[in-house]
Amino acid sequence: MEVNLLFLALIPGIIIIIFIFRKDKIEHEPLSLIFKLLILGAVSCAPAVFLETFMGNYMPAGFVPGSVGYAVFNAFAVAALCEELCKFILLRIGSWRNPNFNYRFDGIVYGVSVAVGFALLENVLYVMEGGLYVALMRGVMAVPLHAFCGVYMGVHYGAAKRYSIEGNHMQARLQTLLALISPMLIHGIYDSLAFMGEYGTTFILLAFVLLMYIVAVKCVNKYSNEDWHAGFYLQEMARVDIDNK
Questions:
Q1: Is the pLDDT of residue 93 over 80?
Q2: Burial 43-72, CB ≥16 within 10 A → b, else e
Q3: pTM
Q4: DSSP 3-state assignment of 83?
């Protein structure tokens, strides 16, 4: 039974990684790098828990358990801020200077890899304790949520890398900020709706997740299709132009 639960906890993240890997059409990233980022994503759980505990101590006095304010504070200031910040720091450490980071779509591959690494460890812990129902619900909700955040973190992370190479440091800083803000917003909205389930937000949460599925897949397809002319270096772009003729 425990082996089956472990499989159910891992399979959603594995499917997502395979999907993203196959969408990287120009140059597949080394499996060793993807595995490294998965591990770093899992490692980011530790500082995230520490920061969440720290931020929880600053809950405003009027936000009592069960209130909307309590749910929103926990969603944005505790979960979204701490988890996405830690994921981004480990993403940056693990990939920013890697020579394989030479196309904008690579940012999506790396962002999703770190996000899925975080989600896999978190999911295993929840599923092994909660059982089959938790495995099924988190497999279609929570694990994809982390991947959605990884997609949007990766979009802006890849843009930040390109602007940095071009010497446009103002735009690089802006895109770095967006690489943090966009996943925090997605994560915060998701958790707010989840924490406020007793207020009748369950169907809104389901609609939000469905919307994220559609938007994230379209985003991945868009940047995957445009990747051939989104190289960071002129020699790489020239080579790809020749290959596509």
A1: yes
A2: bbbebbeebbeebeeebeeeeeeeeeebbb
A3: 0.92
A4: helix
